[in-house]
Specification:
By secondary structure, the protein is mainly α. It has one domain. The protein is built from 21 helices and two strands. The chain has a two-stranded antiparallel sheet. β1 and β2 form a beta hairpin. α1 packs across α17, α8 runs antiparallel to α18 and α12 packs antiparallel against α13. The chain starts with a helix and ends in a 20-residue tail after the last helix.
Length: 454
């Protein structure tokens, strides 16, 4: 860790003044909120009969549904993504020769590679574990539960890649329509929810993955254009969005919980108008706090910690539930469920949370040491050639389909001899190959010294 801190400090010192450090800080804090939220919500315990039970905090303590308003921070990722993708796209088009074809395809391949590179190790490791667990005779239901718990975070990447692919169109829409390019998604999300819950149209709710997150992505453009520069405007945006959120949840149709919880439908998978309102509220809050936040980040220590976290951010996101599963499995098999006697939500359970979170972090650290290097091991697209249009499209679709199936179906198979769905594991690899790269990369210079977020 000292070596990682030293390297982060070197990068922090080289940061140019033009860089908006608040973007990086929001990304880092949001990841930590997701990690801590998952570790809190997934509560396993041993009942009076000595059986291991899955005691989801949300199903036991109704009041905990309110916590999801702070821990469900995926909207902030799309806000930050809109800002960073616009920066990257503008820089690419500014440097590209006028007669260069395939600029967008190369840019998209680079963005996809940046996200999918750290995903390959966790996907392949769990595929191998699923095969081994099947061959040694573990119950397939338990294998499914473990793989599902460990790999559920990849759903976010599938959606984020799709939204990223729309960046040039979103940019043109912002240049021509301004706020209208955001506002158009509000009636689309409302119509989708009406068709889902009133007209009972099947599957239409999945289009909200685009409408909701494209809208939040568009707010990243508004942020960079200075539309939230006045704190009064940002606080007003926050207050109005909060009022709408309370109206449609506490006094309305939508559940208070912003993640899947017993007793109601999910506001996040797929997203609903309530998640849209939550995202707008969070945008107003974090941008109202930006002036104070940027002053805080002038501290060398705080900024170095932010740089350090951003250097391993995907590894933490992708592996934190693997660490949780590893700790729980080792405790159950080797220690007979030591420390798992308290039911989630009780006073005793809350008192022991700091200890358990420390244990999860300790289990995660070796994974960071081994796999974080994949976050900066990007190599050039093979041969330096432009990716053909059809291959680029098919590649992105294959990757997104594979990641979506990994989260939705899981890689574990209930009946195959191997124990896994090979096609689910293969799709992201095939998609990456179509786009001109694969799971093995040649290192190049570490990003981080540019004037804007990567």
């Amino acid at each position: 860790m000292l070596t990682m801190w030293s390297k982060a400090r070197e990068l922090a010192v080289m940061t140019p003044p033009a860089r908006n450090r608040w973007v990086d800080f929001l990304r880092a804090v949001s990841i930590m909120a997701v990690v801590i939220g998952h570790w809190l919500m997934a509560g396993l315990y041993v009942d009076g009969a000595g059986e291991l039970r899955r005691g989801d905090l949300l199903s036991i303590a109704q009041w905990s549904h309110w916590l999801t308003w702070g821990f469900q921070v995926m909207p902030v990722f799309f806000l930050v993504g809109g800002y960073a993708n616009q920066v990257s796209w503008e820089a690419t088009t500014r440097k590209a020769p006028k007669d260069r074809v395939g600029v967008y395809r190369d840019w998209l391949a680079s963005r996809v590679q940046r996200l999918i590179t750290p995903t390959f190790p966790v996907l392949l490791v769990w595929a191998a574990l699923a095969v081994v667990m099947t061959q040694v005779g573990l119950p397939r239901a338990q294998i499914r539960m473990a793989t599902e718990a460990a790999l559920i975070p990849v759903w976010f990447l599938a959606v984020y890649l799709l939204v990223t692919a729309f960046t040039p169109i979103a940019q043109r829409a912002w240049e021509r329509l301004g706020w209208g390019s955001f506002a158009v998604f509000i009636p689309l999300a409302m119509l989708t929810d009406w068709l889902t819950f009133s007209a009972k149209v099947p599957w239409i709710n999945f289009t909200n993955f685009l409408w909701v997150f494209l809208a939040l992505h568009q707010l990243g453009f508004a942020w960079r254009a200075g539309k939230f520069a006045r704190p009064l405007f940002a606080w007003g945006w926050f207050a109005v969005s909060l009022a709408i959120l309370v109206k449609i949840t506490v006094f309305g149709f939508y559940p208070v919980s912003m993640v899947s919880a017993p007793g109601g439908f999910s506001n996040s998978l797929p997203p609903t108008l309530a998640l849209f309102a939550l995202g707008a509220m969070q945008v107003g809050l974090v941008l109202a706090l930006e002036p104070a936040g940027r002053k805080m980040l002038a501290s060398a220590r705080v900024w170095t910690a932010t740089v350090l976290m951003n250097g391993m951010i995907m590894t933490v996101f992708l592996w934190h539930l693997t660490a949780f599963v590893l700790v729980m499995t080792a405790d159950w098999l080797l220690l007979g469920g030591w420390g798992l006697g308290s039911v989630p939500g009780t006073g005793e359970w809350w008192v022991t949370r700091p200890l358990w979170i420390a244990i999860y972090i300790a289990a995660l650290l070796p994974m960071i040491a081994i796999f974080a290097r994949h976050e900066r091991s990007f190599g050039p697209i093979r041969g330096g050639r432009t990716v053909p249009r059809l291959r680029a499209v098919l590649g992105v679709l294959a990757i997104c389909a594979g990641l979506g199936a990994t989260a939705g179906l899981t890689i574990a198979s209930p009946d195959s001899v191997s124990g896994i769905r090979w096609w689910v594991v293969a799709l992201p690899l095939v998609g990456a190959a179509l786009m001109g790269f694969g799971p093995v990369y040649r290192p190049r210079n570490r990003p981080g010294s540019s004037g804007e977020p990567a």
